[in-house]
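To illustrate this point, what follows is a protein record of this kind.

___
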Amino acid sequence: MVNRTLILLLLALGLAAAAAVAAGTHRHGGGEQKEGKPALVCPVMKSPVSADGSGGKSVFRGRTYYFCCPGCKQPFEKDPHAYVCPVTGDALPKKPAASSTYKGKTYRFCCKECKPLFDKNPAKYLAPKK
């Protein structure tokens, strides 16, 4: 009886995951930036940020990014896309999942699902937020 219940539960979870993929969503809620939700990991060093905010902060495309130390703020502000996914705004992992080149610049992504979203309409993800 327990094995049957477990199998049914796993089947239901698998179907839910397949439906999410078919709907074009993934772990970032469909590839849209989460405005207002602060990043809890320094996008430059990939380390935890201090709770008191002493490392500094920067706002990019409507999202606040906090840094582990004051030295990370300047390189981030110079080229934010070197440190965050242009689709979700999430800090890039140490080894980005994919990349695309647009107008001679390489953009990296937090996951492989973001690349086709970006490739379909790069201007949407690079335009300044109003």
Notes: The first helix runs from residue 2 to 22. The chain has two domains: 1-26, 31-126. The mean pLDDT is 77.
